């Protein structure tokens, strides 16, 4: 029996167009379409008489083109899909409308491909699985659950909430890590400029004195001479180390696990990351459990979404114990990484049959704790960083002026 061939969707191009609307007013813009004929058909549907049309030129060396699709973009279109499905708009039309209205050409192409497959009768979950870079297994499993239960609009509302919460939590973690790192980098740059360009000027002045310099001043001058002679070697070594570490981190699961374990031991920041992992665990379990995903599968999804190897391994152990018949709250207690409050809330949920509600409350509490911890960290770091900068910059200035003070005392 002959099998039907799957029609491969045509690639979309971005066109710049000009035309006249129903009121006789000149209008212009840009749209994505497979061909000029398709674009003209789109414009006529909108009541525009096409005029001049041309392909949008591709940027030189690929710079300034369409932006890559980010997890935040996926969260945004998930909310749009949930809203439109809730308003009764058919799925195929929903995907088509969101795709044509999006200002990112890459997203337009992605949604156009999904829409074409939907029109050929392929389920949405299977369409999404063909793009694992943007839709992970958890996302696709939830969509499949919605399709099987006939409540896709409800499931998509939960998916959108989950993705929005995940992106908000990720933004908080980035904020917690970016601020101190950026200030330290600025401090290193300022100190290097002083050592390479300012200190040598003072050294020339000191050489004209012909007097013995203080030990502190000699130390700073020695560091300055070292920086001048081999700053490019130091910079090159840092770049090479960073590149090798990044490559090893990408290729070695053992190194990634060690980094995840050690980063949890960092004062203050480690505590924030632990709370974020608990929030991800609770939010993922709540979303999947409420969607009807079996607990064993939900725990596997939660392990992958935890964002840390220590929590991932602990959750996989919990999954194994739950699969053998143990209650989840007891398995969590055995892991020794979850706070008592979380374990008690899960125990109450298991007794009352409302595990998803209890986990949602836990997620909300810990997301708020992460938010507060990040704000407190910023408030705590500001005076500490100012003090460190003051000591470093002030120490360099004192080292340079000590000889001048000594000459003043002799005179």
Topology readout:
Elements: E1 13-20, E2 26-33, H1 36-45, E3 49-55, H2 71-86, H3 91-101, H4 105-119, H5 124-129, H6 137-149, H7 152-209, H8 215-251, H9 253-263, H10 269-290, H11 295-305, H12 309-323, H13 328-335, H14 340-352, H15 355-410
Antiparallel strand pairs: 1-2, 1-3
Describe this structure in words.
- A hairpin with a 5-residue loop joins strand 1 and strand 2 (26-33).
- Helix 2 packs across helix 3.
- It is built from 15 helices and three strands.
- The chain is mainly alpha-helical.
- It has helices spanning 36-45, 71-86, 91-101, 105-119, 124-129, 137-149, 152-209, 215-251, 253-263, 269-290, 295-305, 309-323, 328-335, 340-352, 355-410; strands at 13-20, 26-33, 49-55.
- The model is unreliable at 1-9 and 60-64 (pLDDT under 50).
- The protein is flat and about 90 Å long.
- It starts with 12 loop residues before the first strand and ends with a helix.
- The longest helix is centred in the middle third of the chain and has 58 residues, at 152-209.
- A three-stranded antiparallel sheet has the order 2-1-3.
- Helix content is 73%, strand content 6%.
Tally of separate helices: 15
Instruction: Report how far apart the termini are.
Output: 108 Å
Q: List the uncertain runs.
A: 1-9, 60-64
Number of strands: 3
What composes the largest sheet? 3 strands, antiparallel
Radius of gyration: 30 Å
Strand order of the largest sheet: 2-1-3
Structural class of the secondary elements? Answer: mainly alpha
Order of helices and strands, N to C?
Answer: EEHEHHHHHHHHHHHHHH
Measured by DSSP, the beta-strand proportion falls in: 5-15%
Shape estimate: flat
* Proportion of residues in helical segments: over 70%
- Mean pLDDT equals 82
């Amino acid at each position: 029996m002959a099998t039907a061939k799957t029609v491969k969707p045509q690639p979309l191009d971005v066109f710049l167009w000009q035309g006249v609307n129903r009121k006789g007013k000149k209008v212009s813009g840009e749209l994505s379409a497979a061909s000029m004929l398709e674009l003209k058909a789109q414009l006529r549907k909108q009541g525009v008489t096409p005029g001049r049309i041309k392909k949008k030129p591709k940027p030189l060396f690929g710079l300034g083109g369409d932006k890559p699709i980010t997890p935040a973009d996926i969260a945004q279109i998930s909310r749009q899909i949930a809203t439109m499905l809730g308003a009764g708009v058919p799925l195929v039309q929903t995907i088509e409308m969101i795709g044509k209205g999006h200002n990112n050409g890459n997203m337009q192409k992605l949604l156009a491909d999904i829409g074409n497959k939907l029109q050929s009768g392929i389920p949405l979950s299977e369409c999404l699985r063909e793009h694992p870079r943007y839709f992970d297994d958890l996302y696709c499993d939830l969509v499949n659950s919605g399709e099987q239960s006939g409540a896709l609009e409800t499931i998509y509302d939960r998916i959108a909430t989950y993705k929005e919460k995940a992106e908000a939590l990720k933004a908080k973690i980035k904020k917690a890590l970016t601020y101190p790192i950026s200030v330290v980098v600025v401090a290193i740059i300022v100190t290097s400029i002083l050592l390479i360009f300012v200190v040598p000027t003072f050294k020339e002045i000191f050489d004209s004195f012909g007097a013995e310099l203080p030990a502190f001043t000699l130390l700073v001058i020695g560091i300055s001479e070292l920086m001048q002679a081999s700053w490019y070697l130091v910079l090159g070594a840092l770049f090479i180390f960073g590149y090798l570490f990044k490559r090893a981190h990408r290729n070695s699961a053992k190194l990634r696990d060690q980094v995840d374990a050690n980063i949890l031991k960092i004062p203050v920041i480690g505590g924030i990351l632990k709370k974020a992992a608990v929030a991800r665990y609770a939010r993922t379990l709540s979303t999947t459990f409420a969607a009807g995903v079996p607990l064993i599968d939900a725990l596997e999804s939660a392990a992958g979404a935890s964002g840390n190897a220590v929590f991932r391994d602990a959750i996989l152990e919990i999954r194994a114990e739950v699969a053998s018949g143990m209650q989840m709250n007891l398995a969590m207690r055995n892991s020794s990484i979850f706070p008592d409050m979380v374990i008690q809330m899960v125990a109450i949920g298991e007794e009352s049959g409302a595990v998803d509600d209890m986990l949602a409350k836990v997620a909300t509490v810990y997301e708020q704790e992460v938010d507060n911890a990040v704000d407190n960290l910023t408030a705590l770091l500001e005076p500490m960083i100012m003090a460190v900068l003051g000591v470093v910059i002030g120490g360099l200035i004192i080292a340079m002026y000590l000889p001048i003070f000594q000459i003043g005392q002799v005179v």
